[in-house]
Amino acid sequence: MLLISILFLKISKKVKNTIKKQKSEYKIQPGKITYSDLNKPAKPFFSKKYRITGKPDYVTITNNNYIPIEFKTGKSDQPQKNHIFQLAAYCQLLEDNYGGFVPYGILVYNNNSQFKIPYDPKIRYELNTTINKMRHQLRTGKIIRNHMDSNKCNNCSMRTYCNFKLL
Prior knowledge:
Layout: H1 2-25, E1 32-36, E2 45-47, E3 52-54, E4 58-62, E5 65-72, H2 81-98, E6 104-109, E7 114-118, H3 121-140, H4 150-154
Parallel strand pairs: 5-6
Antiparallel strand pairs: 1-4, 2-3, 4-5, 6-7
């Protein structure tokens, strides 16, 4: 029994050190990690109100608030608008699934730049407007490309419906 206890303590310490190392490496905010989609696939969140679904990379609890953290490949000196909307959607999903207020989310880019994005009334309104606009475009079949980036076009979830494909 003593041997099992010692083994359990060693494993527990190793897991704790691994988590500490990952938090430092990935620049995860202080707080308890309550959700992770990086190491193994996690269950997506769903919002009945907005009919959206998504899986943030991490969710931590900091000061009794759920905080979504999203890692992005590439380097950026400023957060990209589409990444901000994705993070805003995660904030809304957390509010709808856990209840309570989500004050902000965090975007982390490969060049170690990190942005704390407030989930304020302005971004809430823009998110709702964008969701409604996307639904209208799907309903009417009038999908309009808003960029000239062939990579973005090739990987777009709306590609099937779009009449303005670059490729």
